[in-house]
Each structure stands twice: as structure tokens, then as C-alpha cells.
Design brief:
- A three-stranded parallel sheet has the order 1-2-3, with helices on both faces.
- The termini are far apart.
- The chain has 108 residues and is an alpha/beta fold.
- It is built from five helices and three strands.
- Helix 3 (56-60) links the parallel strand 2 (42-46) and strand 3 (64-66).
């Protein structure tokens, strides 16, 4: 019964967030991500960085890969409202790539 509910929710979703943990294998979450991908849904995956390699195929179909739930919230805030985080992930010393390369760079 849960699989019917999950498939219905995925079909009705605009964006699907799939969260993986590191304590045990979550094949059902990987299946749900594949199902969402087959339906052409936008996918955000969330998992600790140390399991990125085993999720490389899932991540390759995701539009966004996050390491924390907070990053998922920041992504959704940007996608829905256009709101950027107050402080970039790179910290207070972040410099946009266009500024780092120079405005006259022919290949920004």
C-alpha cells in the first residue's frame, strides 16, 4: 500500500527530494529516484558526502546534489522564491567566478 501512495505522490510532484543515510542501504529510495527520473521529475538528492560514490548513478540523474537538509531548503528557497543564501557555501571569502577570472575573460 505504501508503494502505491509513494508512486502517486511522485507523479503529482514538481520536485522530488530523495534522502539517503549512511547507516543502511536504501534501495527503495534509489528505486523512487529512478521512478521520478523516468517520469521526467526534477530530483534533489541529499546524503552525506562519504556515500557519494555508491550513489553516483542516482546523483547523475539529479538536478541538485546536497549534503545536508539545510542545503535542500536553500535550494528550494532559490528555486521557488529566487532567494540566495545569506552566506555562500564557500564562506564569507567567496568570490564569484566571473570576478575571479576577470570580466574580459573570453571563456567565463
Amino acid at each position: 500500500m505504501n508503494s502505491i501512495r509513494t508512486q502517486t505522490l511522485i507523479k503529482d510532484a514538481d520536485i522530488v527530494v530523495v534522502r539517503f543515510g549512511e547507516n543502511y542501504r536504501q534501495w527503495n529510495a534509489a528505486f523512487d529516484a529512478g521512478y521520478a527520473s523516468a517520469l521526467g521529475k526534477s530530483i534533489i538528492t541529499c546524503h552525506p558526502p562519504n556515500i557519494s560514490h555508491m550513489l553516483k548513478e542516482v546523483n547523475s540523474n539529479a538536478q541538485v546534489v546536497c549534503g545536508t537538509p539545510d542545503q535542500v531548503l536553500q535550494t528550494l528557497a532559490y528555486v521557488i522564491h529566487g532567494t540566495l543564501p545569506v552566506q555562500p557555501k564557500d564562506g564569507g571569502t567567496y568570490v564569484p567566478i566571473a570576478d575571479r577570472l576577470g570580466k574580459g575573460n573570453p571563456k567565463p
